[in-house]
Batch of 4 targets.
Target 1
Amino acid sequence: MTPIRQLVGHPRRGTSRVGVGTAHGTFGELLQGALPGPGEADGEGRFLVTLPVARWSSARFELQAPGTGLTVSPSHKTKATALATALLTELGHPVAGSLVLTSTIPEGKGLASSSADLVATARAVTAVLERSVPARRLGAMLAAIEPTDGVMYPGVVAFDHRRGAHLRTLGHLPALQVVAVDQGGQVDTVAFNRRCAAYGASERRHYERLLGELARAVAAGDLAAVGAVSTESAALNQSRMPNRNFVALRDICRLVGGLGLVACHSGTMIGILLDPRHSGYRSQLSEAVHLAEGLSGAIHLYRTLAA
């Protein structure tokens, strides 16, 4: 079993008593649904496909004397507190230290802010202790706290967010531009997953087909096909997490010649995917932003991470 520090981590030791770690977010999901399988009757088989984005969470963990307890800043990062406590206990170390988190990922929007916090925390703790946690075990620990994105893995991956299990790596995409509109508010990931409607057998077969199409598109570098699957997933998600800007953004995407839409399936944003290598990219970007200004919600620009 490959340890997290080798497979998914970028931990860095600062001093003998300080460890630091970082993790990227993901702009929603290229695809999210459920697959056929033995756990189907129990509602298992849920999955998502990540779209890594250039927004980051960073964690700095400093060991303290036994008996001093664990402090976390900002204090509302209770999920990171829970993971740091669980990791220290599992690795046989006193639960004592200071954890400081900083992030450029907005919370409650569907960009994996909590998952990035947790992965950065794990990397910081394992760095200072110079210990390893198998990736499969870490995924289970994260999923015990909340449904989690696969941001511990590089590239585009299919991930079971309820079990914290890596399903497959699809590959890498070039850096893409996302013109996003936030309809406002925040979504609690835990609450959303509790109330999310079940997937029927035919839906699961449909998502299985879409995952196959997406895997082939990523492998071939076929960005139009990637955008087509992502747009269909966003459309299907309207029955579970409606976004009032979906139809208008789909029309804008078609008008400017974008690749497709990408949705934060358990969040508040939908974005238009553009390829910065396209000869008409600057015009596409300008027109997409101009047209999106007429919609209800704040406009944000994100750049995805390339290989």
Note: Residues 23 and 119 are 6 Å apart (CA to CA).
Target 2
Amino acid sequence: MYFEGRVSGTGVGIVLGDSAADYDVQVDGTTVATLVTPGNTTHWINGLQNREHTVRLVKRNDTPGDTSTFGGFVAAPGGAVLSKPTARNRQIEFIGDSLTVGYGNLSTSRDCTQDQVKRTTNTDVSYGALTARQLNADYQINGYSGLGMVRNYNGSSPDVTYRTYYDRALQNVPGDVWQNPGTWRPQLVVVNLGTNDFSTAVNPGEPWTPDGLAAAYRSAYGDFVQKLRTRYGAGTTIVAVGAGQYAGHVQQVVKARNDAGDSGVRYWLLDDSGLDFLGCAWHYSAHDDRVISDRLTSFIAGLPMGW
């Protein structure tokens, strides 16, 4: 999540209410502050040259159990908040789990405490954010760590899945529904869900056989693609990412959509060659995110996007 604005003058204040997440503040393209669980505050960046500036606030990590508030940018005395930047023509939505969030991607060790995970997660250098910037697109990263399409990591929280939360604006408010203001019309949606469904063996007591889990995954994935198609229309390209154990299942879902006449659903195999998985708990490192972004950007460049 990020907010962009324009101000004139020698300083800018960022009005925040968040005791759980971390943020970067960027002025004129340079990170000038990292705010660690800032709480209720107006954080000031002073000493700027007395001219126009671009300012960007980016949320670094995922905190689905907490509500964050952003109260806007304010100008220092003598300055002014200017009209908002022009929205980019391109929009991309990324849907996924902790690998899409950028979980622990700045860590120097695979062994991390929960606090270290929070401090070393930076969604702004995840493969999705990097891909969007390469393509000069506005973007959403709708990632939720630990959740899968039908089964969560190690069978945890069996009463919910990623799909439980997708429609919500506030993840910690059951029944909440995000109201699209009409300005979010992504030409491209990238779905990367399946690692948590299949990365751990089914435990005794879970309602799955291996074949049953695979069948349920494919069925739910197909339904989710249809949900996206209904939401965004026939003009949106949906890229379904396959990797590891779930690659073949995603490929089957895409083939079924294509056979049914929906040529706007594309399959992309995430090639993990050259990745070091040096992030926390064997997640992508920042290096890996750059590699994946370059490969995904190249794939997207070959699609008939028409943008």
Note: The chain has eight helices and 13 strands.
Target 3
Amino acid sequence: MPFPHAFAGGIVLSMLAVGGLAARQETPQARFSSQVQLVEVYATVIDSKGEPVTGLSRDDFEVYEDGTRQEISAFAAGEFPLTAVLGVDRSWSMAGDRLRLAKQASQSFIRALRPDDRTMVMAINNEAEIVAPLTMDRAGQIRAIERLDPWSTTALHDSLITALDRLEGETGRQAIVVFSDGADRYSHASPADVIERARRSNSLIYPIGLGRERPAVLAELAVVTGGRSFLLRDVKELDKTLTEIARELRQQYLIGYTPSPVAGGASGWRSIRVTTRTPGLRVRARDGYMSNEGDLH
């Protein structure tokens, strides 16, 4: 994804009516729409030490769609409202200290969010169970996490699709943070189904694998959505990792552009590369979006 300097951090694509971002740079809300022409990209920039970089301006970025450089017509930096799903693996293999530590880490993540961020808590077992609805009720979410007990097996693929479906139609920045200690054992959906659904979403996905191996689908989900994947050998590392994700989600840039006629052709997949002119910086970026033929005319 890097071009000529890589970014690291999440990039989420969305489309909005032309001028919409410019009119509300302080608290931008991004969304896909079939009647719009502005593509919005969320980006998090990091330095060589992996620390988020703030203070960049519009002139520090370049955006390419299908290899063609685009003019950045809107730009904002800062903390944007977030709509998030936290997926907690509560399968039998998480019983004991694993689940206890995982619940503590999940509660820390909830507390680290902004007061106006909306969050949903989803328990992952043989199905996706919404244990706390999409609200700003931190106390209720923390109580719901505390009540989680180990149950059944892991339907990770189905749970990810459920999370994506629940966020469909939501405006603004979206993220799914999910962790699991094993391979999927119960889903109807295949890894390819999950990737395809993620490509058609607005959401950054931050998958965390616990154990010795990380399912390949988790790493791919992070790449295609602009999130970040992790492999943790010890569940004790989960608290630090979730706190790091929460911090990353608070330090992002929003870049908007109207695709040029060369890029805005027929419907289908559009690749995106966002680059920085500053050497030594990296970006973690979504690799493109699906467009309808009518979207860009």
Note: The chain has two domains: 13-78+251-296, 82-249.
Target 4
Amino acid sequence: MTRLMIQHETRYRYEKPVAFGPQRLLLRPRDSHGLKVEKASLAVGPPGPIRWTYDAYSNCVCWFTPKGEATELVIVSQLVIERFPAPLLPFQPDNPHTAMPIVYSRDDRAALAPFMAPDSEDDPIVTAWLKEQMAEPGEAALDFLLRMTRTIDTFAYKARYEEGVQTPAQTLALRGGTCRDFAWLMVEALRRVGYAARFVTGYLHSPAATLRGAGATHAWCEVFLPDLGWTEFDPTNGLAESPDLIPVAVSRTPREAAPVSGTLIGDPGEHDLSVKVTVSAAEDLATAA
């Protein structure tokens, strides 16, 4: 078990005062057998009413409506979590359905159908690249998924704070992007060969700052496998079921998983966004204090 402290600060600055509609925040990690939220606090400015709900994916959603007008919107989330990692290897499932082509049971297919349907248009660039990734029928699904994860890991990484995600074809044409571009490429590619895959956002623990995407929110891919269930693959860093991945939200598409989204009322003029995320061992912070 590892105790970690997470601080996530989001700061919007506007040239002109604006009012605010409801803001949708996805900041609280998903409690599970592998992760427990021990402490949580949220500071916002301007102040306003807050309420908590769960969305259709069972993500914990905070709805916040700032009062009055302001030239700045600040959201600071602080968390202490306990992480109970479950390594993927050396476990190898014996289920013959966990092989290429993947086969789901009837009941699983009914639940997984939304995550098996591609959201983006077919593109010959994606089709050609996907054919290159395929091996002989009967290959273990884990081998195929790990190979794809490591292939995308070779693409050039560049942080991008602007909203939006590249199409899979754009990412392949550029052979580069940010973590959400790589995750979305893998999700959409896998759906085209029969896998149930979903988009994940959260945090990345990188004590030595050696992992790509550290210091900001992170995105990766989950794939459903018979006998293993939802399994994490991070194509930005070539990771699988890593204890360094801290999931906050899962969704069918990236547009549903933005950490902060909402509306403005009025003309903000020039504006900018800054995001800062720190993930560190909770014991280290206690010692420093």
Note: The helical segments are 106-116, 124-133, 141-152, 168-174, 179-191, 282-288.
